[in-house]
Amino acid sequence: MKHLLSITDLDKKELTSLIDFATQIKANPALYQDKLSDKIIATLFFEPSTRTRLSFESAALRVGAKLIGFADASTSSTQKGETLEDTIKIVSGLADLIVMRHPASGAAKRAAAVSKVPVINAGDGSGEHPTQAMLDIFTIKENKKTLENLNIAFVGDLKNGRTVHSLSLGMAHFNPNYYFISPPSLAVPAEIKQALNLNKIKFSELTDWQKIAPQIDVLYMTRVQKERFNDVAEYESVKDAYILNANSARLFKSTCIFMHPLPRVTEISAEVDADPRAIYFDQARNGLWLRMALLISMKY
Ligand code: NCD
Hints:
By secondary structure, this protein is an alpha/beta fold.
């Protein structure tokens, strides 16, 4: 593997072997502590992040790598007007791998085009977030014991939510049945639907979950992506469209799992956290093992 820009850069075999590797690492993380002791990894975060950056950095440190980078582009030369391409050319001469997040869709691809070292996309605007999808798939496998033939509901901001884009493309290897539940203005983008159609994936688009809730195996909630709206009033009108609380959680079966890439805002009430079906904090923690597996598996 060279760069990881989209979840579609991995075929089914690569994806499942990475997940198997993450499972092994989770069982015995200390075995891998020196794997990358000769590597320097750069984390370049041009856009806010808590989980993804810290999880990558913790993963890198746990496999022995050293870190450079920034968590806030306002402290980098971007502030002086340096282009993304120039920043990447410089950093790729200093580090062995670049992990980057950027507000513009396609930014990771632009970076990869000028980088001398592998680039991992840690989120590019409304584009993709492949490592989130990988940790989501790892978590689904761990909890459902299979990835095949699942009914998966994606709920919320399916237009701007890059985790949904990557996860729906990534799970397409496993014969899923998708329900995309959103207000019409936040529907899943045409390119994603096109890709699913090409792969003959069954999906339907709905504006509420009432009817389909009892069949769902995986409920994937998402945040309405405020930062991608130009109009605050428009954001306000859709932000609370779907709320998972103790009451609405009753619609879903006992074996359904509740997932969310986090951060959540109002779409999942804190009262749901104690529900055994709520696995979003375990899901976030799984990012560590998955990213250790990924960092070790990259071709440097
Ligand atoms: C997501 C992201 O950044 O796309 N967060 C994450 O990486 N876990 C989801 C979000 O911001 O809503």
